[in-house]
Design goal:
Strand content: under 5%
Low-confidence stretches: 1-5, 285-300
Structural class: mainly alpha
Distance between the termini: 25 Å
Largest sheet: none
Oligomer: single chain
Radius of gyration: 18 Å
Number of domains: 1
Mean pLDDT: 77
């Protein structure tokens, strides 16, 4: 019996829990992993930590997936591969950026990508206003001094573009309805594809069980838990609504950065957080969303 016919208790809970609650849990897991990664940058290159992050998450997700190697069509494999490579590259450029930019502000600038996805799919006046609040909040939060940090800005903008692609590709992988198998397989493919970027500096990690364990733990928190939950969330809500929920990520990242990395937000940052939360709270939830959800559950 395959995973679709006999979902486990965790899958059943993820399939019935409130999407907003799942999203908050995903966000906290992702940025606990990011904070741990920042602490590792003194010993391991950021791109290598990101590479191990993707590797660890892919391995864990395939281990817990039953029958992940069965019944993949060519179209599904191409979609999974695109998703995995995009995710791996997004992680690498994001880590290169937060090695130079505070976690909360880096996530805020990166949020330009998801905002563009939401803007392209927003269809009502109310959601347009909600998106406007989110944009203003992100702009207020994005007060990063870039005079001497051009590299950090370039890296986070590249990560932003890849994040937008992650939302689009991730939705298609979620609708394949193979649990977390598609995510795990995609991340393994992404690990192989980005090996030339992450592997050359990985020597110290392979000879240190502690460093190896911590790098893989980053993957468990940030990808296996965080992105795994995202797959269940994307399967149940439209891309537009998911993109607006992503407005919570700068808030979560700022809080985790403050607590774990002593990256204290300023007064202007708090104002930006409040504006983002207003935008999220104003999301419209009506009949059109139910129609969109039905349309999006069709992998074709």
């Amino acid at each position: 019996m395959d995973e679709r016919q006999s979902p486990g208790p965790i899958s059943r809970w993820l399939s019935t829990a409130q999407p907003e609650a799942l999203f908050v849990l995903s966000a906290v897991a992702q940025y606990i992993g990011a904070a741990l990664a920042v602490l590792l940058f003194d010993q391991v290159e950021p791109q290598t930590v990101a590479w191990f992050r993707v590797m660890g998450a892919g391995i864990v997700l395939l281990v817990i997936s039953r029958g992940w190697w069965r019944e993949w069509t060519r179209e599904q494999l191409v979609g999974v591969a695109l998703f995995g490579i995009t995710t791996a590259l997004m992680n690498i450029f994001f880590y290169l950026a937060i090695d130079r930019i505070d976690l909360g502000k880096g996530v805020t600038i990166e949020f330009i990508g998801p905002i563009l996805v939401a803007a392209c799919t927003t269809r009502s006046v109310r959601n347009g206003v909600a998106l406007a609040f989110a944009i203003v909040g992100v702009v207020v939060l994005g007060g990063v001094e870039v005079d001497n940090n051009l590299a950090g800005l370039v890296f986070i903008l590249i990560a932003s573009a890849l994040w937008a692609l992650y939302i689009v590709f991730g939705a298609r992988v979620a609708h394949v309805d193979r649990g977390v198998a598609g995510l795990g397989l995609g991340l393994v493919i992404g690990t192989i594809a980005t090996a030339p970027i992450g592997a050359p500096w990985s020597g110290p990690v392979w000879v240190s069980p502690l460093l190896l364990g911590l790098c893989l733990l980053v993957g468990v928190f940030s990808n296996a838990v965080g992105y795994g939950i995202d797959q269940f969330t994307l399967r149940r809500i439209p891309i537009r609504r998911f993109s607006l929920l992503l407005a919570l990520l700068p808030v979560t990242a700022s809080l985790v950065g403050w607590i774990a990395l002593d990256q204290r937000p300023s007064t202007i940052d708090v104002i930006g957080i409040a504006l983002v939360l207003i935008g999220v709270a104003m999301q419209e939830r009506d009949e059109i969303e139910r129609v969109e959800r039905v349309v999006q559950t069709d992998p074709a």
